[in-house]
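Hey, sorry to bother you again with one of my protein questions. A protein chain has come my way and I'm curious about its shape. I'm sending you its amino acid sequence along with the backbone structure tokens. I owe you a coffee for this, so here goes:
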Amino acid sequence: MPVNQAWLDLLHEEVIDPALPICDPHHHLWDHPQSRYLLEDLLLDTGSGHNVRETVFVECTSMYRKDASEAMKPVGETEFVQGIAAQSASGQYGETRVAAAITSFANLSLGAAVEPVLEAHRAASVNRFRGIRHNCGWDESPRIRKSHTDPPKDLYLDAQFRDGLACLGKHHIVFESFLYHTQLLQLADLARSYPDVSIILNHVGGPLGIGPYAGKRDEVFQIWSKGIDELAACPNIVVKLGGISMPINGFGWHKRETPPGSEELARVTAPYILYCIEKFGPARCMFESNFPVDKVSCSYTVLWNSFKRIVKDFSADEKADMFRNTALRAYSIEV
């Protein structure tokens, strides 16, 4: 969905607590015919007033190798982002270290045969490649779009997929996952089965709010919270707080005449974010932008203001974890 910048510009807010250091652990970079988000676009957002020190790129099927085998095509994305990270590291684009860590894609359903792909990713970015994301978002309703990896039902229960996941633990590579609230127990089972694999849960676990879930916010929250309880009991999982301003979450902000402000965002999303913080603890939570995907609903300034409002009463050390330190630890980013 293309971003309507003129619509976002209808609302302006002053930045809350502009000195607070931030590592944004989830954004994308791409160049599609109808949507472009590259270094200069990201820097317009990160440079809008919040103190964003580092960012983490997360795979989005961008710039795959054209002539490689199907398994090796995703390595092109790592090469592409490594180049952008090198641009940023030159110091000519400001102080934000863009793509200080890179999460790529490899088809873990290859099983043990995924190892050469992992080696190729690491060779493409020796100093920044940290993780693999293989999403499994799937729902019975045709109105719920499957993850871009086109997963089958119950992907995380598949034996060959699990053989591929085991390779991540062997090579100390982080596993990153986005799925829907109805699937959280599958991820919990995966985490318990592979305790040596560090797992990052994206977007607070994907509470759906469209299709058969529209108008059922309380029912969805009950199912979602039970899944979060199970995941929080797994010490190898950390959670990203954010990514719930997408159309699939059902809040409908992108359809309004004017964008929401940070007070409204905070009020609506706080139940999910505070529940995750309560269960995981600040040291296992990290705020994320999920830009430019969430940009269809709000600006970068407003989004981070909403996060700061939600945790305004937390201690300085707890805020330091959630806004930066948890991400630095999860992705082994040196500062």
Summary: The first strand starts at residue 21 and ends at 27. The radius of gyration is 19 Å. The chain has ten helices and ten strands. The domain at 5-330 is CATH 3.20.20.140 (TIM Barrel).
